[in-house]
Amino acid sequence: MRIPQITLSAIIILTTQLSVFSQNQTNFQKDSTMLRQIFDETLENGRAYEDLRSLTKDIGARLAGSASADMAVEWGYNKLNSYGFDKVYKQEIEVPHWERGTTEKAWYTDTDGNIHQLNILALGGSVATEGPLQAELIHFKTREDLQNAKKKDVKGKIVFISQPMDQKMIETFDAYGACYPIRGLGAIDAANKSAKAVIIRSLSLSEHPHPHTGTMQYEDGVTKIPAAAISTMDATALEKHMITTRGVTKLMIEMNCKTFPPKKSHNVIAEITGSENPNHIITVGGHLDSWDVGEGAHDDGAGIVHSMEAARTLMALNYQPKNTIRVVFFMNEENGNMGGKTYAELMGQSNEKHIAAIESDRGGFTPRGFSLDGNDRQLKLLLSFTKLFEPYLLQQLEEGYGGVDITPLKSEFKDIALFGFVPDSQRYFEIHHNANDVFETVNKRELHLGAASISSLIYLLDNYL
Amino acid sequence: MRIPQITLSAIIILTTQLSVFSQNQTNFQKDSTMLRQIFDETLENGRAYEDLRSLTKDIGARLAGSASADMAVEWGYNKLNSYGFDKVYKQEIEVPHWERGTTEKAWYTDTDGNIHQLNILALGGSVATEGPLQAELIHFKTREDLQNAKKKDVKGKIVFISQPMDQKMIETFDAYGACYPIRGLGAIDAANKSAKAVIIRSLSLSEHPHPHTGTMQYEDGVTKIPAAAISTMDATALEKHMITTRGVTKLMIEMNCKTFPPKKSHNVIAEITGSENPNHIITVGGHLDSWDVGEGAHDDGAGIVHSMEAARTLMALNYQPKNTIRVVFFMNEENGNMGGKTYAELMGQSNEKHIAAIESDRGGFTPRGFSLDGNDRQLKLLLSFTKLFEPYLLQQLEEGYGGVDITPLKSEFKDIALFGFVPDSQRYFEIHHNANDVFETVNKRELHLGAASISSLIYLLDNYL
Question: Entry's PANTHER family (chains A, B) (predicted)?
């Protein structure tokens, strides 16, 4: 391996050195100077961290349809107005309205008669138990095992799926994606076998006492049964019991969560008007709503302050964008994505040309790069920024997902370039959708480096896309 | 910029694709399979996190010369013995012995007569105040300002240097390096102007209440004056007072730290004997000692468990190294580096050939790559691993520092390749040398990914160096 690899590395070194000379030096110098100014401004004067403190501590958790979400809309509108954008406005949308309710309890009784309480969270959208629900528990190690089970063995029981996220995957979002159907479709699978309810091991990579919530689905024609997540610690303990005393342990569960009629809410939008192409739009955003546990600090308070700070930095440097830079605080990403869908629909009906959108919804951790959902020309453009991004350790420039909120824009603008901000993912799934997602888990430098990275990409896209 | 850059990126893409085919496929497949097995073993069965819990909670802070350091030596010896190495032994060294003592207090009085207490830590090696020491305070924004000051203005006063670490530097170790002389040489600079004592702003990138300690030096023929660090929060507040009421604020300080005669201590060493070249040595290590505040979790408990786990993983996979893999727990990196110096001396007198050394002493954060202190051939070799490291996001492969403990080996073995493990550096300097450096700040996945990265480098060096 050594010799050919050395040849390769030699070529790479050569290419890299060549590039410095082969590039348009004037532009490269201008752009690298601008990126340095962007990072300096954000690292020295950035507001993202204090804005996030305010969003998480003055508002807190903010599930779409709640009073907190309404206050978050006011917070966003006022905050954006304080930064001197050319335009700040709200965009009305309709959002689902589900409430966790006041009771979420579960216990299991082992064969020795010992009673163990479980830390549970109803999955978002779950029906209630309508009072105490007690039944025999049946354990499946995977969703596939449940799908392959005999209906008579599952009928009338409560299903427990203990499948953990795969520790071996380096990119934790891959491990999340692999387990997502357990949470999203487990209630349908269990109901298809006539189960009374389903509980799943929380989608998390760490063992801790807090259950992780998240969306789940029902299917027309399939009975809607209650669905909850239990903490990874409880799941590990319960699985041990089930393996030694399979099928005989009873579970008692009560949840009084409820779905209400849809409510009006808003996306919150601010713009820096383009000096050359005011109706060419570069959207940058995150989602303003969060789940109703923790404080929505990394998911997605970070994306909100990233987007606002990225634009604030450009304004602080008196940068006049050629295209319109539009900051969008999307509402309802977590349980319906009505903000993203409505925004795309309305933009499709407008005379605007949407050339790019950037989403930050993977946390406020140390930046690693950007993923592109776009075409080859756009990928080449992204890779052409390699040398400019190098000093800021933005080394992961690759094809990939943009983000839930901006993906609907693709159906309206087929040539749009969708970028996802890619921070380090290792800590995300111990914080995601649970009580751990609080301001204290966010690091100021990591957050501000992310904002500066996004600001730099906006600048480069504004000039070269 | 766009067109030439696209050309560049096109070349890079081409090169990358070419490489896949140009490489020796057999070796590349074998090596990439081995790296995958290494990461799987560490991520699924790694012991590093629980070993670190034991080192930080059962032993805790462990300054060289203390009983805790002696217990850490026992801990390391027993722990290494539990992993089935071919050899485990201690290497006797002599270490300095300094103790913080029981009193560390400081107050300043503002011009309105308000008394403010300061959170202080004596710098390692500082002399005591010999009872209460009160004097006028004189403030300098930088070390240079102090060096340029008139002796008569400084004489008899306590010097305060408020220079902060530079937030704008992306690599935080660069910002640390730039401020290091303030802590290391500030007492000499101040004594040269006949000051009574010196206090400095803690070398940290975050504003918090805990002062950061660290080494400092005296110079023969220059009066030894007491030196302490105050917390960044206190430094910011005190600087405000000094700017508005420069020179009139009084400071009272008392510290009863003390230097004792040198003591015996040990490096702790374990080996997997090389099957082909038993006297060709690849050293991997971190330092077992820590400062006497916090728990020495990131600095350098992480390096200790990284090194042990990297070797454990290779043994768990039944890998038979061609060269001898030697794990070294170095003692006394923090205040004398007697472990590193003695190890190098003794090895220089042996008949061993030291081909490489790897040090982990930058924390247990998410891995970013390796830095090499070596020659061009070794750099090309490191770069030749680019494709193998890609799936594990080891993207920073560059020339740079190896580490304090292994650097003395260079004077004995001029062709040795010294590698520093490079984790993400953004959080390091809020944890470094202060009460924040506890087990709870370490993330299990980040720590285990680091161990697997080091294990992978050992494997590749064993085969291709």
Answer: CARBOXYPEPTIDASE Q, PROTEASE FAMILY M28 PLASMA GLUTAMATE CARBOXYPEPTIDASE-RELATED
pLDDT value of position A15? 45
pLDDT of residue B245: 66
Q: Residue B365: what residue type?
A: F
Q: Which residue of A has its CA nearest to B385?
A: A5
Q: Does B180 touch chain A (CB under 8 A)?
A: no
> Does a cis peptide bond (omega within 30 degrees of 0) precede residue A405?
no
State the total domains in chain A. Answer: 2
Reading the block at residue A359, the tokens are 């989403």
Least CB-CB distance to B443: which of A18, A380, A427? A427
Distance from CA of B318 to the nearest CA of A (A): 20
Residue A2 lies in a domain: no
Whether chain B has a CB inside 8 Å of the CB on A29: the answer is no
Q: How many beta-carbon pairs below 8 A join chains A and B?
A: 151
Residue A337 pLDDT > 60: yes
Residues of A (284-323) whose Cβ lies below 8 Å from B:
none
The minimum CA-CA distance between B24 and chain A, rounded to whole Å, is 5
User: Any chain B CB within 8 A of the CB of A428?
Assistant: no
Quick check: is B13 in a domain?
A: no
Tell me: do A405 and A347 sit in the same domain: yes
Report chain B residues whose CB lies below 8 A from the CB of A385.
Answer: 5
Q: Are residues B141 and B230 in the same domain?
A: yes
Question: Cβ–Cβ of B24/A43 closer than 8 Å?
Answer: no
Give the per-residue pLDDT at A21: 43
B163 and B176, same domain (yes or no): yes
Q: How many angstroms separate the CA atoms of B157 and B169, rounded?
A: 33
What is the average per-residue pLDDT within A352-358? 98
Q: DSSP state, B141?
A: S
Which of B:186-245 have CB within 8 Å of A?
Answer: 205-206
| Residue A335 and residue A456 in one domain | yes
Can you tell me the distance from the alpha carbon of A419 to that of A374, in angstroms, rounded to the nearest whole number?
A: 8
Average pLDDT score over residue span B283-300:
98
The minimum CA-CA distance between B213 and chain A, rounded to whole Å, is 22
Summarised one tens digit per residue, pLDDT across range B377-432 is 999 999 999 999 999 999 999 999 999 999 999 999 999 999 999 999 999 999 99
Closest CA to B387 of B84, B44, B17: B17
Res. A20 pLDDT band, cuts 50 70 90: very low
Q: Indicate if B282 and B431 belong to the same structural domain.
A: yes
Nearby residues of A12 by Cβ (< 8 Å), 6 or more positions away: B12, B15, B383, B386
Contacts of B267 (CB under 8 A, 6+ apart): B90, B91, B93, B288, B328, B329, B330, B331, B339, B342, B343
ipTM of the complex: 0.92
HEC string for A101-157? CCCEEEEEECCCCCEEEECEEECECCCCCCCCEEEEEEEECCHHHHHCCCHHHHCCC
Contact (CB<8Å) B1/A23 = yes
Q: Does A17 touch chain B (CB under 8 A)?
A: no
Phi then psi for A90, rounded to 5 degrees?
Answer: -105, 150
Task: Specify whether B229 is located in the same domain as B327.
Answer: no
User: Looking at CA atoms only, how far is residue B305 from chain A in angstroms?
Assistant: 19
- Within a domain: B153: yes
Q: Which domain holds residue B155?
A: 104-256
Residue A297 and residue A380 share a domain: yes
Question: Looking at this protein, which amino acid is placed at residue A219?
Answer: E
Best of B1, B6, B397, B436 to substitute, by most chain A Cβ atoms within 10 angstroms, is: B1
CB of A10 within 8 Å of a chain B CB? The answer is yes
Q: Is residue B283 part of a domain?
A: yes
Kindly determine whether residue B22 and residue A8, on different chains, have CB atoms separated by under 8 Å: yes
> CB–CB of B314/B459 below 8 Å?
yes
pLDDT level of residue B6 (50, 70, 90 thresholds): very low
| Whether residue A339 is found in the same domain as residue A239 | no
B297 band by pLDDT with thresholds 50, 70 and 90: very high
